[in-house]
Amino acid sequence: MDLLEKTKNEINHPHDKDFGFIMTRHVNSEKTNNYWNINAKLLNKFYPNKLIIIIDDNSNQKYLKQTFLLKNLLIIQSSYPKRGELLPYIYFLKNKWFEKAVIIHDGVFIHKRFSFEKINYSAISLWHFNNSNTRQHLKNNIRLANYLKYPKFIKYHLLNNNTFNGCFGVQSLISHTFLVHLNNKYKIENLLYAVHTREDRCSLERIIGLLLFLETKIKTSLFGNIFKHPYAFVYKFENYIKDIKHHKIPSHIIKVFTGR
User: Fold this and answer.
1) Does residue 74 contact residue 53 with C-beta atoms inside 8 Å?
2) N or C: which end of the chain has fewer CB within 10 A?
3) What is the count of structural domains for the chain?
4) Helix (H, G, I), strand (E, B), or coil: what is residue 252?
5) Domain of 52?
6) Buried (b) or exposed (e) across 114-136, using 16+ Cβ within 10 A?
7) pTM above threshold 0.85
8) What pLDDT sits at residue 5?
9) Is 20 part of any domain?
10) Please, are residues 86 and 204 in contact by the beta-carbon 8 Å criterion?
11) Rounded Cα gap, residues 28 and 59, in angstroms
């Protein structure tokens, strides 16, 4: 059976279709259940007419609880556990909910409206990391490349291209048309057979970063190099809650870091 056979999901609620949000969710504790709840409420506050799609990846039902009611929300229980950051691309590929998708983690909190509708790129990373980090997990990066069309071409660039950057967290702004093109050319849907572990998802950051660069030639990202953010990799949810209480957050777009 085709792995993509059951990915068709539709929503009838009226919404602006220029862009919307697709959020990956994995809840494994009471604390992490707060992430998507806060995230969705903030998105609804600043983008009330935009559709919010949540792709749940193997959450623990014991902790999963919705603390609000939104009409512009669609929650999809993924049929492909542990595919993580790959899931928004797979589901968006088969469901044109809007023209462009802002693909984010559940642990991202937007505190000021960013005009995504003014971004003219067909695809761009939200954050990136430099090419010096793209050679990490190299053996596994090569393994993932073998699942795609033109694997020799992709592996050549993984090994020799010093220009492309990684797509941090595989988070991006991407048009449906561009994603279909990417799949038609490289068959990224085949990565459903390859991505199963945390290391695989790290390799996915490098693979998607390379493909975005090869097809757009864009080297940068909307919000910059993640390693240059002073809170990167050390800012926890507890820090975020403390800063909220003191009305002092380090950025209008926050990413908290949790090993899951």
Assistant:
1) yes
2) N
3) 1
4) coil
5) 16-118+229-255
6) bebeeeebbbbbbbbbebebbee
7) yes
8) 40
9) yes
10) yes
11) 6
